[in-house]
Amino acid sequence: MSDAFTLGLFYTIIRPEEKWILEAAQARGIPVERLHDESVTFPLVRNGFKADLVLNRSVSHTRSLYALRFFEHYGVPTVNPYDVVSLCGDKVLASLRLQEAGIPTPRTVVALTPEAAMKALDEVGYPAVLKPPIGSWGRLLAKVDDREEAEQIIEHKTALGSPMHSVFYVQEYVAKPERDIRAFVVGDELVAAMYRTSSDWRTNAHLGGETQSLEPDAALTELTLRAAEAVGGGVLAVDLMESGDGLLVHEVNPTPEFKALAGATGVNIAARIVDYAAGVAAR
């Protein structure tokens, strides 16, 4: 591959995923410019960085958004683009986009005050799930079993005083097997999928959920690719649940980890990401 293409890696720490990305780039003869999100600066006029395309691997949603907007301002393509990360990083906006695209999702009601949040929970019914509009890794989620518990949780969130806790994203609790599905999309292809199983209602692998490779059937593939396309496409992890009415998409992650998925499936996801990034840079 030509040395004319330099890949920028915008990152927070070098986790296994970033290590594999660096190895995949090296194997393809692609130079990598490391852009550490704690040290890089962004003048209004592009400074001396060399990257022709930037792959975002920052764990900070806020840093990602500002950085991606600057890269866009400089005329440098990114994976994923600012618009995709901005949309998927906000559960409210992502839910709206998925609903507009006809993607089946859990019933969701959004409230802007504590009083309206109690009303939203009554509308959805108990048990319900209360989520921050921005966040990942299963953090700050609460399964709410009754009105008394809801009042306590909402009072606590209000006392925190954070803007993140002033918008209440209320979702139905979906009765499902003790598992969910993570499907990983690169471009227009579902490259790997797995079950995440846990006795806890949250099945995130980093919270201890067990993983098992899954061979996607036509229905899973079709829904996953539709969901990815609805939010703008790119490198995305689509999380789905098996409900009594069929598959539901409950989240699309725009900067996904894939250590557990690669381990469960044996798929070289990092290589697929690097190849996709090179293709975007060549457009």
Top keywords for this entry?
Dna Ligase, domain 1; D-amino Acid Aminotransferase, Chain A, domain 1; alpha+beta; five-stranded antiparallel sheet; 9 helices; four-stranded parallel sheet; 283 residues
Note the topology:
Blueprint: E1 7-11, H1 16-27, E2 32-36, E3 53-57, H2 61-73, E4 78-79, H3 82-88, H4 91-100, E5 108-111, H5 114-124, E6 128-131, E7 142-144, H6 147-160, E8 168-172, E9 179-186, E10 189-197, E11 210-213, H7 218-230, E12 235-243, E13 246-253, H8 259-265, H9 269-281
Parallel strand pairs: 1-2, 1-3, 3-4
Antiparallel strand pairs: 5-8, 6-7, 6-8, 9-10, 9-12, 10-11, 12-13
Helix pairs in contact: 1-9, 5-6
Helix fraction by DSSP (H/I, runs of at least 4): 25-40%
Going by helix content, strand content and strand pairing, the class is alpha+beta
- Identify the CATH architecture of the domain at 175-267: 2-Layer Sandwich
**What's the CATH H-level superfamily name of the domain at 175-267?**
ATP-grasp fold, B domain
- What is the ordering of alpha helices and beta strands? EHEEHEHHEHEEHEEEEHEEHH
Strand element count = 13
Low-confidence stretches: none
What is the rounded distance between the termini? 15 Å
* Strand arrangement in the largest pleated sheet: 11-10-9-12-13
By DSSP (H or I, 4+ residues per run), the number of helices equals: 9
The overall pLDDT average reads 93
Could you tell me the radius of gyration in angstroms?
A: 19 Å
- Judging from the principal axes of the Cα atoms, what is the shape? globular
Largest sheet: 5 strands, antiparallel
Would you state the CATH class of the domain at 175-267?
Answer: Alpha Beta
* CATH T-level fold name of the domain at 175-267: D-amino Acid Aminotransferase, Chain A, domain 1
Fraction in beta strands: 25-35%
